[in-house]
């Protein structure tokens, strides 16, 4: 059988900076819902956070984006100099180099965040733990949460607009969101034209921690695979979220392609190490060494690079 290695590695800088002029301050605060259309108004602004609360942002002079995907948006808005800290998932971004780290978005510590004296925090609903977020809010720091957009790539533009509104750049955000929406729409059109839809299994790999998971329904990879014209093998097998890899699950799922993140593949020793995981070598993807590897933030960020990421997936799915 023909052996195909589709190894797509992203190395290098990314991200475009918004060029639209900053909006002039409004005489009255505007209101913006997380996930709805952003108004053409600067600060102060009241945001309907994804946690259901109304958050008033008066000052975006010291910003901490709590996730890599949010940092990517903030940097693209031209606000690098206002970012006073980032989480570990943003450290692959060139603009994040040299910025203080606040740990990982899911395991934040209030003391480390508050020590940087932020005037606004913006993160997805993945950020936590909840008790730490409560401490930060109780300290008087505005915290705006936006949906992760895990269920659909179509929600990415609204996510961008909400982040932009929260940091006082709604006009730039609208422009950026329009560009990303066009890229996603074009990529989805290509995905819909994929004639032979491959079964694709997304594997979350962390070799050092011996963590080997397969993604399914509700995982971001599911939305990406589907939009690019593939069939998510995990979702088709009835997996919800993530479950440990088993030989039975891999053989039964019989993926044509295995999709992984670059650092995950590296952590298990490359393709040779991947083939040693339970059941992988016995799948069509394993026998043909048909593996697609991408930068994690590009693949799962649901942010600025979602359109180009879909283009790469479409190309990989069409390869023979």
Class by SSE composition? alpha/beta
Q: How would you spell out the order of helices and strands?
A: EEEEHHEHEHHEEHEHEHEHHHEHH
The CATH topology of the largest domain is Rossmann fold
State the low-pLDDT regions, or none: 1-31, 35-41
Gyration radius over CA: 20 Å
- Report how far the terminal alpha carbons are from each other: 11 Å
How much beta, percentage-wise? 15-25%
The structural domain count equals 2
* Overall pLDDT confidence: 89
Total of DSSP H or I helical runs spanning 4+ residues: 13
Can you name the CATH architecture of the largest domain? 3-Layer(aba) Sandwich
Shape descriptor reads globular
Major sheet: size, sense and barrel closure? 6 strands, mixed
Helix content: 25-40%
Q: What is the CATH class name of the largest domain?
A: Alpha Beta
Number of DSSP E strands: 12
Which homologous superfamily in CATH is the superfamily of the largest domain?
Nitrogenase molybdenum iron protein domain
Nutshell version of this structure?
Belongs to the bacterial solute-binding protein 8 family. Helix content is 34%, strand content 16%.
Protein model, in words:
The protein has 320 residues and is of the alpha/beta class. It has two domains: 139 residues, 3-Layer(aba) Sandwich (Rossmann fold); 126 residues, Rossmann fold, CATH 3.40.50.1980. The chain has 13 helices and twelve strands. The strands form three sheets. Strands 7, 8, 9, 10, 11 and 12 form a six-stranded mixed beta sheet that branches. Strands 1-2-3 form a three-stranded mixed beta sheet, with helices on one face. Helix 5 packs parallel to helix 13. The longest helix has 23 residues. The radius of gyration is 20 Å and the shape is globular. The termini are close together. The N terminus is likely disordered.
